[in-house]
Structures are given as C-alpha cells and as structure tokens.
Amino acid sequence: MAKSALQIARAAYQPKLPKAFKGGVALKEGKATESVANQAEIKELFPNTYGMPVVTFEEAAAKLSMGDFNVGVILSGGQAPGGHNVISGLFDGIKSMNKNGKLYGFLGGPSGLIDHQYMEITDKVTDAKTQIDINEYRNTGGFDIIGSGRTKLEETAQFDKGIEICNKLGIKALVIIGGDDSNTNACVLAEYYLQKKTGIQVIGCPKTIDGDLKNSQIETSFGFDTACKVYSEVIGNIMRDANSAKKYWHFIKLMGRSASHIALECALQTQPNICIVSEEVEQKKMTLSQIVNSIADAVAARAAQGNNFGVVLIPEGLIEFIPEMNVLIKELNDLLAVESDVKAAVAKLSANSKSVYESLPEAIAKQLTLERDPHGNVQVSLIETEKLLIEMVKTRLAAMKAEGKYVGKFSGLGHFFGYEGRCAAPSNFDADYCYSLGYNAANLIASGKSGYMSLIKNTTKSSDQWIAAGVPITMMMNMEKRHGAMKPVIRKALVELDGAPFKELEKNRAEWAINTCFVYPGPIQYFGPSEVCDLPTKTLALEQAAK
Ligand code: FBP
C-alpha cells in the first residue's frame, strides 16, 4: 500500500512509556474501593469485582512474567485517534513478558467475539489471510487494523459464545477498548467470567473523542487530544478566512454527543465569537429563541463596528438540551419506538410539542424523525443544528433591522466537524498515552487482574512522571435508568459549569464575542520542539492545575 512521507517517518516513532515500564516493575495495591454511588446495589450485582483496590505499577528489580496464554482485543464504538497504538502497546507488552503469547484481534467490534471472527496480530506474518502485521499500524490513526462496531455485549448467550472462542484459541484475557458503555459491559463480562470460573480476565481501556469518559480516576479518554487539535486547526483556518474576506458568519457544529467538551476545548484553543455549551443551556433552561437572540445580538454588535463576520461553535448535542426540543425529542423517541409511520407518530404529539415541531424548518423536523440509534435515541450527528441556527438568526436579524436595531449584512455558512478528526494520526500525546495504556493493560493481565480499566495518570507532566495504574471499573459506577430499568453504568462526564475549562470560557467570552480575538493553532506537529509537539489539551491542563 502506498504511504505518505509522514506515514513513513511516523512509523519509526517510538512512543514514550511511564518510567515504571522501562525496567523491572512491581504491582502496588491500594485500599479497598467503593462505587461512586449506589454502593449496596452495585456490590450485589458485582460480588466478584466490587471493592477491589486501585493498583499502581512501580519500578522494581525484575519484570513481571505472564503465563503461557494468548490475549484477545476488541475495538468498540466510534473511532478515536490512538486505537492502533493501544494495540501496539498491548502487543509489545505481552511479548516483553511472554515471547510465545499470541494476540488475537476480534473483527468489526464486539460482534467479532460473538461470531468468532478474528485475525492474529503479529510482527511476523506468514499467512496474510489469518494474520495482520502490527508494524503497518504503529502511530497511525483509524481502527482499520481490526475494525470496530457498536454491537453491545450484554447477554449471557453472547458471553458464552465468547468463552467458546477463547477456549478454542487459548485466550485467557480480553482487552476491550471503548467508551463508558463498552467499559461498563467489559465489567459485566469480567464478573460473569469470574462467576463461571472460566479463568478469562477482562480489562477495559478509556476511548472516545467525546471526552466524556473521565472522573476522579480517568484524567482523559484517548483520542480527545488529537480530534480537538484537528478541529481547532480547521476552525483557525476558517477564522483566518473569515477575518480576510470579512463577509461570512461561520456556524460550526462539533461532534461530542451530549457533552460539549469538544466545543469547549476548541473554543479555548481558538477564541471564537461565540461557543454554545449545552450543559449551560440546560442549567439556565434557555429556550431556542433565547439562544438565537443572543447570537443575533452579538452579530448586531459586531456589525455596528463594521464587522459582518464571525465564528460560532455549536456542540453536536445542543438540540437535546433545549427544554422544548428535549420534550419533543423524548416524545418522538417513545412514539417512533412503536409507530413506524412518521406522520402518524407526529399526529400523536402533545399540543406543545406539535407546535414546536411545526415551527421548525422542514428539513430539521425531518431529521428529528430519522432512524434511532441502538439505544432508541435520536442520532444527534444527523441533525443540522448549525443550519437551524443560521436560518433562525437570519429571521431574527431581519426583524431587528426593521426595528432599526441592526445595520449590517448577514451571510451564514454551516459546517460540521466530526469524522475529519476521528482517524487523524495521533498527536504525540495520544501516541504516547495510548501505547502506554496498551502496555499497562498487558501488565494488568500479567498481574491476574480482571474487571479493571487500564489507566495512566499525571498526564500533564512529562511521560517519565506518568503513573501506570489499574482502577476497578465498579468504582466508577452508579445506577441509572436505561430503557425504563435501573442499570449499573459508568457515570458520563458532562461539562461542569464550575469546572476550570468552562470558567475560562466564561471569563473571556464577552470580549471574544465583540472583538476579533481569534487564535490560529495550525496543524498538529509531530516533530519539533516539545512546547509545540507535546502540549496537552487546555481542558486537561486547566483541570489538572485546579486539582
Ligand atoms: P463513541 O462514543 O463510540 O466514542 O463515538 C463518538 C462519536 O464520534 C460521537 O461524537 C458521534 O455522535 C458518534 O460517534 C457518531 O456515530 P457514528 O460513528 O455511528 O456515526
């Protein structure tokens, strides 16, 4: 396969590891843990994996040794930069402890385990039909090494199919690389395998560009760093274009599902005129027209200074946080679950929701009724909120003009950034972080752990100060309502309005709204001075500094 010059040079990059893994290593166990809430319920559901200690790896005289068995790996959910490095770190970690240990990759996500679709991951390919060369994937973006999928591992019949294939391949440990739901399911699987005394360990890894898998234990999910840097580069380029042409307002929607972490991080990197934060909209119960009016006011204020251009960042999940839209979406979710005819479902909406639905531009109303995701939720990435806001701001400005409150020209352009950043070549941060997560997972396996998430802490410091750790997944759980029933889940982290990143936006946004304070971050740098190449995200830096 043809390769770019960067791909060739980047393949030789040796990711950094925490100091603990440079020589011998020993496992240190902390105190027994409790789940973040609902302790009694979670303890009852996870009798074998509840209360285990947080563990850390420390430098020691000798390396750990791994039993003579094989390991399986699964990529779950949306792509995130660095997934290939988790697998390379895992591969190298296994080989450093057990030369004969094989790594099997299950294909297309969790369904590969259930349907017994797999390939061996190796650095000595002898049969291209059954083996994948790990060296082709080091430091590259994407999940194409084995593919990913959104099948949920939830049923015992699926778990039993997993036991069958693990026994056949001599696999004694599975590593599941995924977001909050996939890691919750990894823990359910670990518990089941312990109960059944299968001898199969399960370790999770924190993945998602959305940045919503973090808590007192997880500093950041992998992929967030690279994805935000890619979006910020392009936002910066658009800002410079806007500041050159001086005739467009750019409305940029950013991925992230419910959480606004990506939009907020990109705002801190680029200083747009406006960045909407869904969590604030929800807390202040802002209506759609209040949001539209505040944007129109900023457009008018800039127009009064002769600046008919600007940039607005919009989090992907915004629509669900606007109270009247939230009610409408919930009603539609319930109605469409039992009624396939959209017209018939719309006819059954409550009077309020019907009038909201009818007030929306036709295209947006249609997008609200599109196919639901496997959880029965609307797929926010398919709703063109950026176009909705442009249309509504335009209408509002026309009214303001008629009242003599606006003198300017408004031309809005919509963009959606999401897929552009999910498979970018990982930044140095993600390349190092992911490789370390994988290498650490191998050491957790060698230590006999199951139901743990592989974690690297102290990540704003240089990698020789990084701490390699394992955290029991039950520790991060609470009970939440899913599909009408209470379930144990890892709590999703939304933007905290009293957190340092949001406070930083709040401190600056009045000035950024009116003046042109754009910052142009430029592309990710893989080679060069550390202060350019190894910067963590502003979110991570601010959060860690506030601790
Ligand atoms: P994960 O939560 O699985 O990491 O996926 C993140 C994400 O990129 C969201 O930001 C986005 O809403 C969604 O995936 C898009 O899903 P799909 O890849 O199925 O279009």
Model description:
The chain is α/β, with parallel strands linked by helices and 547 residues long. It has helices at residues 5-11, 39-45, 83-97, 111-114, 156-169, 180-195, 224-245, 261-270, 278-283, 288-304, 318-321, 323-338, 342-347, 351-359, 362-367, 385-402, 419-422, 428-446, 500-514, 530-533, 538-545, and strands at 24-29, 55-60, 70-75, 103-106, 118-122, 131-133, 171-178, 201-206, 249-254, 274-275, 310-315, 412-417, 452-457, 467-472, 477-482, 485-490. The protein has a 10-stranded mixed β-sheet, with helices on both faces. The two termini are 46 Å apart.
List unreliable stretches of 5+ residues: none
Mean pLDDT: 95
Query: Number of helix segments?
Result: 21
Instruction: Output the radius of gyration.
Output: 24 Å
Helix content: 40-55%
How many beta-strand runs? 16
Distance separating the two termini: 46 Å
Q: Which ions and ligands are bound to the chains?
A: 1,6-di-O-phosphono-beta-D-fructofuranose
As an assembly, this protein is: single chain
Structural class: alpha/beta
**Percent in strands:** 15-25%
Instruction: Please list the strands of the largest sheet in the order they lie side by side.
Output: 1-2-14-13-8-7-3-4-5-6
Major β-sheet, in short?
A: 10 strands, mixed
Q: Per the principal axes of the C-alpha atoms, what is the gross shape?
A: globular
